[in-house]
Each structure stands twice: as C-alpha cells, then as structure tokens.
Amino acid sequence: MLQNAWLIVWLPLLGFFFHAISGLIFKDRAAQKRVVAYIAPGVVLAAFLVTCAVLPEVMALPAHRATVPLIPGLGTDAPWIKMGGFQVNFALLLDPLSLLMALIVTGVGGLIHVYATGYMAEDPEQPRFFTYFNLFIFMMLLLVMAENFLLMFVGWEGVGTCSYLLISFWYTQVENAKAGNKAFIVNRVGDLGFALGMMAVWSVFGTLSFFTTDGRGVLDLAAVEGGARDVLGNPVSAGTLTLICMLLFVGAMGKSAQIPLWVWLPDAMAGPTPVSALIHAATMVTAGVVMVTRCSWLFVQAPDAMQLVGWIGIATAFMGATIGLVQNDIKRVLAFSTVSQLGYMFLACGVGNFTAGMFHVTTHAFFKALLFLGSGAVIHSMLGEQDMRRMGGLRKLIPRTWLMMFIGTYAIAGFPLLSGFWSKDEILEAALESPWGSGPLLYGIGLLTAFMTAFYMNRLMWKTFYTEPRFVDGQLVPHHHSNFDAHDGHEEHAHAGGDEHGHAHGSGKVHESPPSMMVPLYVLAVLSVGFGIVMAHFTGGRFEHFLEPSVAPKSLYVSALRHEEGHAPLIPPVVGFVISSVVGIAGLSLAALLYRQKMQTGALLPEAEKARNPVYQFLYNKWWWDALYERIFLQTGGWLADRVLWRLVDAGIVDGIVNGVAGAVGLMARIFRRVQTGYVRNYALVMLLGVVILVGGLLYQWSKEPPLPVRERPSAAGVQ
Amino acid sequence: MNYAANLMSIMPVLIVLATGMIVLLGDACSAQWRARRWYTWGFSLFGVLMALVQAGNQLQTQMATTFSETAFAGSIVTDSFTLTCYVILLITALLAILLAMTYLENRNLNLGEYYALVLFSTAGGMLMACSNDLIVLFVSVEILSVALYVLSGFARTEEKSEEAALKYFLLGAFASGFLLYGIALVYGGSATANHAGTTNLADLNLYLINDGRPSVLLMCGIALLFVGLAFKAALVPFHMWTPDVYEGAPTSVTAYMAAGAKIGAFAALMRVCSALAPIGEYWLPAVQTLAVLTMFGGNILAVVQDNVKRMLAYSSIAHAGYLLVAVSAASVRNEQAHNAAMGAMAFYLMAYAVMTMGAFGVLIYLSRKGRDLQTIEDLRGLARTDTFAAYAMLVFMLSLGGIPPTMGFMGKWFIFSATLQAGQVWLAIVMALASIISIYYYLKIVWMMCFQEPERPEVVEHAVASGGVRATIVLSLATMLVFGILPGALGILLNAAETTVFRP
Predict the structure, then answer these.
(1) Strand partners, A329
(2) Rounded mean pLDDT of chain A?
(3) Does B503 reach chain A within 8 Å, measured CB to CB?
C-alpha cells in the first residue's frame, strides 16, 4: 500500500477533473448534479480509507517516515525541476505529521463533502462548487504531504486560490467578490514571506527537501547535533535561522489569520457555510501551524522567532476573543473564535510544545467543523438568516441541531473532559512553562481568553436557541426591525448575498435539516466529545508519542536557549486542570446568568446604548483594524499609486523612455530595410562586405593577441 | 572498424535516405494518383519514425556507455551531441511531413518528390551534425542545400516561388564557394614541417592545442568557414536572402527550412567552434560581433514587417543570434560552461524548431484555397473567428518571445545561464536587451488577434484544416507547454555534450 500512497492525492484530483468536464458529459443538469454529489464525497472518503491503510505501514517503519513518489511509476527522486545543483522532486513525505493532517483533511473534509451534498443540493451551480471543493482537497493534501518546500508552496498557493474561488462562489454579489479579493490579496503578503523564507532556506541549506535518505535534507541538517549545519557543513548562525523562521512565519500569519494579517478571515464567511467549515476553520487556516510544526527543527534553534510566534499567537487569541464577544452574525462569531483558537495553536508552537499545537489543530478541526456545520444547519433552517438578533427559541423547533451545537459549544469552551478541554489545557500548561520566560503572563492572558471563549460561545447559544423567538415563521417580528437598520448595513448585504441562494425552496417554516447534513454532525459530535479524552488520557499521551518523530525533540530547543533542564513545574498538573475547568465553566455560567435576564430581547444592551458605548464600538469594529488598513494602505497607497507612480513615474518617466526607445528602433528599422532591395547583386555585395569584415577582424585579432602557451598533448583516448 | 559497423553508426541517416529513395521510386511507379498520395505521405512518416526510434535507441546506449565512436576513418563521429541533433531534426521532419499534405493538395503541388526532397535535406542536416571532417561537412551542406533550393521553388507556377529558389540558389552557391575555399585554407594552414595539413576536426583540435599561434592562412580559412556556415544559419550580414526566400517559398517549405536548415547549420557550427576552441581568443570576438549584429538586426527589422512570413523570417534571424550566443559560450576553455552551453543549444534548437513549426502550422491552417495568409492584418480578431488557431498562435508567440511557462522561456534561460557560466556577462545582457525588442512584434500579433474586432464576425471555414495540420499544431502546443513547465523531462537534451569528443 505504501507505494500506492499517491492515490491519496490523486483521487481528489481525478474528482476535480471529472467535475470540471462533467458539464460536457451530461446534457441533463439534474443528472449531472446527482452524479457529482456521489463522486465528490466518494473520492475524498476513498482517499481517507487509503490514508488509513497507509498509516500502520508508515508507523511500522523504524524511522516512522517514508518518501513515496507523487507520480505513480516514477521513483521518489523523479525531478520536477533540475537545474545544476538545484533539484526539486515530485515526492510525498509520509510521517506522523503529514498523515495526521491527511486524515483530518480527508476525514473531516469527507464529512463536510457529504454535508455539502445536502447543503448545496438546491444550488444550480453545485457542480462548480464541488469542482473547487475537490481541487481544494487535492491542494491541501499536497501542502501537508509535500516532500519539499516548493511542492508545499504549490499546495499553499493552490489552497489560497481555491479559498478565493469559494469565498466568492456567489460572485454575482459584489460583497462576496470583494471578500474573495480581500482574502487573496492579504494572503499575497504572507505568501511573499513564505517565498522569501524558502529562498533563504535554499541559499543556506542548498536543498528544499525536508528529509532525504542520505541525510542532506533541510531538517536533517538542522537536526545535526550541536546546532544546524549549512550545505557546506559550517554552523548556521542564530541570526540566519531567526531570519528564515520569521520569513516563514510571515507566511503562516497570512494563511492562518494572525495579527496583523488576520483581517481577511471574518470576511471570508461570505462563502457557502461548508466552505467556512472546511477551509476557513478545519483545514486551510491551520496550514500555518502545520508549516511551523514541520519546520520545528529550525524554529527551536531561533529563540527570537519562537518568542515572536508565541506573542503573536497569544495576542491574536486575546483579540479574536474580545471581538467575538459582540458580533451578531452567527458565522462571524465562529470566525472570530477561529482566529482566537489559531492564536492558541501558535502560542503552543511559540513555547515549544508543537504536539500540543497539533493536538489543538485536531480537536479544533472536529468541534469547529461541528459548530460551523451546525450553524449552517441553523441558517438552512432559518431560510438563510444569519443574524442572531432575528433568531431565538430554536431549541424547540430544531432540537437535534441544538444538541449538536450544544456539544460543539461545550467542547470549544473547555468544559471538562470534552476534546477542547484537553488540548487547551495542554497549551496553557505549556505556556506557563514557557522556556523564554513570561510564563505566568501568557498563562493569565490565556485563561482570560478561555473565559471569554466560553462566554461568547454560550452567548451564541442563548441568543440562538434559548431566548424568546424574534421571528414568526421565518419572518421578523416587526417591532425589532427598526433597531437593526442603524448600523448593520454590512451584514444585511452578507445575508442577502449569502446562503439564501441555496435555499430557494421555501416552506416558510423552520425545519430540521435533511439526513445528509445531520449524519456528518453526529460523527463530528462523537469526535468532539471523545477524541480528547481517548488520546490524552485513556491511552496515556498517545498523541504526543505519535507525533514525536515529526517534531523537534525538546532537548534541541532547550540547548538552543541554554536553559536549565529538569526544574519542577510551577503548578502541579492537577491544579492546572482544576483552574482550566473552573474558568471554562465560569464563562459558560456567566453568559447563562446574564442572558437569562434578557429572555425577551436576547441582547444585554439596548441598541441605542451600544452606539454610544466606546468599548462596544471598539470591539464591534474589530479594534479599528480595517479602518486602520483603509487609511494606511488603501488611501495612502491609492494616492501614491495615482499621483506618484502612475502620473509621474509611469506616464512621465517610463512611458517616455519606452516610447523614445521604440521610436528609435522604428527609425533604425526604416533605414535598414532600404538595404533589402530585392536584387541579388545587392545581397551578394552585402555578403562580400561581411566577408571582408570577418577576415579583417580575425586577422586584426590575430595580430593583436599574443601567442597562446603551448599545452601538454592530451592522450588520444578520448578521440578514437 | 569493419564496414558494417561503420554503416551501423549512421543508421538513422541511412534509414532516412532509403525512405527518400523508396518514396521517389514508388511515386514514379504507381499510376494511381489517389493511392500515391497516401503512399508517399504515409511511407515518409513511417520512415522518419523508424529513424527516430533508431536514433533514440542509439542515444540511450550512448548515454549508458558514455562512449563516442568515430566511423569511416574518423570522418564521422557518433556521440551524444550527434544523436541529440538527429532526434531534433527528425522531429522537425516529422512535423514538416505532417503539415504538408493538405496544404500541397490545396495548391495543386502534391507530388511525391516533395517528401523525398524533405527526407534528403533532413539526411543532409543529420550528416552535418555527425561530420568530423570538413570535407564531409561540405558535402552534407550541399545535400541539405540542393534539396532546399528545389523545395523553395516547388510552387513552379508562381513567380515568387521561382524567384525565391533562384535567389537562394545563386547566393547559396556564392556562399558554398567561400566554404570550400575556407576548407582549403584550413588544410594548408594547419600543415607544419612535420606533418601534412588536415581537414579532420579532431586532428585540428589536437593540433591547435599543441601549437600556440595559428598561421595567417589558418585564420583566413577559419574566417571563410564561418562565412559559409553563417550563410546557412542566416546570420547578419549573410542573411539577406532569408526574408525573400521565406516569403516566396510555399509555407510548408518555409516552416521546414526555418527549422531544419538552422538545426543542421548550428550543429555544424557547434562542431567547428568546439574544434577551434583552443584558439578561441583569436576568433571569438568576431563570432560575438556576428551574434550581436544578428540579434539586433533580426529583431529591429522584424518590427516594421507587415507580412507575417517576412516577420517570422526576421524573427528566425534573431533566434539564430541567440543560438550564436550559446555557441560563443561553448567556445571557452571551461568544460562546465562548454557542456552547459552545448546542452542549452540543443534545448533551444528543440524549442525553436517546435515553436517555429507550430507558428507556420497555424499560418497553413489559416490559409485558404489557393491563397496564403499574407499580412498581420489578416489575423485581425482571430480570437473571435477561430479560437483554436488564435490561442495556439498566442502560445507560439509567447514562446518565441521567451515568456514563461513555455519552452522558449526555458531555452533562453538555459542560454543565459550557460553564458554567465562562461563569463560572458555582457553578451547575456545584450541578448536580454535584444529580446525585449522582439516582444513588440510578437505581441503585435497577439494584440491583433485578441484585442481587435474582426472585419467579418462570422466564423470562417478554412479550406486547409486537415488532421495533419491540426496534429502538428496540437503536438507543438503540448511540447511547448509541457516542457516549458517540466524542462527536466528533456534532461537528455541538456546532457547533449556528455560524450562529445573535443577538449575545449
């Protein structure tokens, strides 16, 4: 099976090709949609099965690592690009990290595909949707399973493209198209960082492969005893490593929506909900964490870069949580919670506990996919309504969807013994033991963030499910309406251009979603409940051991920091356990207590109060990040582009030079073409002129050059 | 080496020659016009394919054993470079034959000799690539040329075609005189008190390594050798015939001539220059001057052309300049740069041949019954009326202009990199500047096709759109894009210099 691992990436790719040409195969749209709805989840789930079959074989290998060809039939060193000393291979790296991510991408991705067959059933463009969706799975698998940086970069750019295509899937609404552009453009900034980092890696290590059999891969060289060695065997300075890691981390910032490149993610919710669940929650946005973990050997030797990662992570976690407190769009709350949880993952990486980060990636994939799909089911039930202020009382109407959301909320809030609790607790503990200091501070902010997470998630539950309904049969209760128009134009648009498309059918009643949408929810709910306790507790840290071959050993990190090993933890694990539990439960309870008193309106503050309250406005407007970027980049940049670069530089200087040169070339051409008379005698004359010049030139050179030194006569072996 | 082994080493050439003769005889013997037309076309294709398989096999053995052999008393050499050139030439011939049939029928020119002449000139080009002796080189140049003279006058009833043939023949004879005179001077100039002169390139190479300063006679000989080959390769100022002949000859001939003759000429030039590399200081400045003149001359004059065939003629001159840059880079005494430059030239020849055939293929595809497509204006709004042709042409133009992800880009990249390795930085810069000019006229065609409204918006039915022409275009297109993205897959071309005989 190991040699057939290429199937994992090829299956979704073939699915993509099939959907892309399905329009040519089927004359009947309905038949096309029916077949696509089977093929699309089918290939992804098949890839999942192949991954499951490959996993034990890789784990049975002594190094827990295998390189397999990407293109069947070719060897693992089949070059994609080979130029001089630069070689990039078409190969996949199979190790615990890549297989874990492959399992998440194909497993959770497969469930979301199944869900999407129900969710997108009514959309006339459903085949186009699954074309992009399968392409995304292929690109994501390429990203996580690549054997080298460049192939990873292909996947990295590919998922960015798919993300763009899917955010603006309903492209006729200009808001969606703008959101897609925003995501793409912001990601470009990060991608530039990644590309520069990759170039720096190549210039230092002379290769882009992560691991090679002869131990010359980037990470092989980085893992050498006593510090990283470059391609010539000289030690690499800490400054160089820091630069490489910081550049790579800029890439991660873009893809994983960290400060300051996080602004695109909330807007990305303009896409269909399965897209938000798959790309903007469970898989693509965690690519940055995966990349940092993959490069852990480099990062652990660059303490400054680690510190940056940690601080950016905790700051993003905190900021995301505060903004999440006041959002009204159900998907936006989840988007900010994603930003916040991604911050946690980077915090874990920053303090050197990469396995905890990946553990959170995994559990987060389960419960965040569950929450997104659940919110999708809510939106589906509400005929496209996304604003929580127009919801309420849904618990009675859609009890099964409620139960799913309930499980997801408690899992992310860190309710004891659910999945999110274990992974978050591990991260908080690691933060407290931060090897570069500031442990208690990180721990404190982390706890505060956890508290806010629990609060805003239960707020979402209360606004949506428990408080009095603020609609009648899918219609708004009229007297609430006047409150919303004041400062909510944006979400009006998002909602108008949003999921309504998919639900042209209209019984007008709130209803439970079809089984194709509910079954994936049940599976994800089971994982959200049980995965953490099984992996972290019952099997005694199984997860950590599983990932060990893929991340840098702690010893390497500590030696780079010249840190004393073996001191006692600041607080015993049991105490940390209790603190985490208490914080999570407190957050949940506070929300319940406060909203219990506002059953009628489902809002803590009246609308008029909100407009006046500066703190509320600060949070509601996302700390003014968008306004800041608008001022700095759009307005200043626009001025620079218009007045300086276009009118002065381009129109004046560049066009002047270009037109001048072009004019000169044209003039010369008009002169020279006169020689082309069409008479053979003239042609012969020109040739003769050439002969004279050539002979004269050679003889002149001959008279000028000193005689060459006589060289030793070579053996004639090479000749005859 | 026995006689059979000698013949074995030039097997691909023999297959091509034999095919040519059988086609010629068969054509004369069969009275049925309809049967003849398929027989000549089909058998020529088959023969070229056979030769291609044979050359490929030999190349594979060659790469495995890294053993280059000489045959016929050292006058023929079969090394990796020879075989690589065989493969490129045979692919060119294959495309040329594929292109020809319906085009010729539409112009009432479908005679069996056509294919035989293409095959003979291909054999001539192949012999140029394998000749290790100046006499063999001369004979093979003539085999190539005589067939081409006839081919350019193949449209016997058309004045322009006749004029082209006569011009080509007269000037070609003039150039052959210089070539032969040059060979004689080299023979005389390489004679010393101890031994007679030589026309064998390997011997000449050894002689030059040992004797520091060449004689005046030898220098004159070298200069005249260059004149002869420069004419074949259409280097400025020996290029004057090119636009007239390319314009006048039937388009299918032009396509073959632009690609095939150039491959042969550059293979020979590369051989001669490699042999002369030990005294590179004496003649390299002259070759570099020719390269600069050719690049700028070709590109600048292409800018003002209105006729597509003439424009492509000047563009082919410019490409000859780029190839000459590779020759110059291969002529330094640095083994690594020499090998890189040889590989780059092989890659570029392949790219050039395929993209030129493709571009002329589109012209043939677009020509109507009895009338060739003439001016750039005729392409106006093509993207609307014939999407396939327009997009194929777009790719060929981008590739000729050296824009990624096409093979033309990779080819230029390899030449740049080899030139830098050879330490001729200024030449690389000049080449970059010259190719900027070329973007103008390539994009002019793109602009005319894609950004202009067609005169008559309806879709035009082209008379010539046959399977063979389409196949040529699609094959070229696929080659352009696949190897533009995966140049490594053509690694064998880049290793063309692996087992060559000369010491630079």
Answers:
(1) A387
(2) 84
(3) yes
What's A469's DSSP letter? Answer: P
Q: What is the pLDDT of residue A573?
A: 78
Q: Does any CB of chain B come closer than 8 Å to the CB of residue A631?
A: no
CA distance B204 to B226: 16
Sign of the dihedral through C-alpha B394, B398, B399, B401: positive
Size of interface A-B (CB pairs under 8 A): 132
Q: What angle do CA B417, B419, B420 make, to 5 degrees?
A: 65
Cβ-nearest to A673 among B74, B216, B304? B304
Q: Are A81 and B226 a contacting pair at CB < 8 A?
A: no
Domain boundaries, chain B: 3-494
Q: ipTM for the complex?
A: 0.89
Higher pLDDT, B69 or A205: A205
Mean pLDDT on A139-155? 93
Tens digit of each residue's pLDDT (9 = 90 or more) over B77-136: 988 889 999 999 999 999 999 988 888 888 888 777 899 999 999 999 999 999 999 999
Three-state DSSP class for residue A112: helix
Does A502 have pLDDT greater than 50?
no
The DSSP element (H or E) to which A50 belongs, if any, is helix A29-60
CA A326 – CA A329 distance, rounded (Å): 10
Candidates A698, A701, A720: best to mutate against B (most CBs of B within 10 A) is A698
Which of B 141-180 lie inside 8 A of A, CB atoms?
166-167, 170-171, 174-175, 178
Nearest-angstrom CA–CA distance, B219 and B463: 54
Written as six digits, the tokens of A60 are: 């049975």
Composition of chain B by helix, strand, coil, percent to 5: 75, 5, 20
Query: Cα–Cα distance between A192 and A200 in angstroms, integer?
Result: 12
For chain A, the first-to-last Cα distance in angstroms comes to 51
Closest by Cβ to B304, choosing from A669, A694, A711: A669
- Of B233, B243, B491, give the one whose Cα is nearest residue B352: B233
Q: How far is B164 from chain A (nearest CA, A)?
A: 10
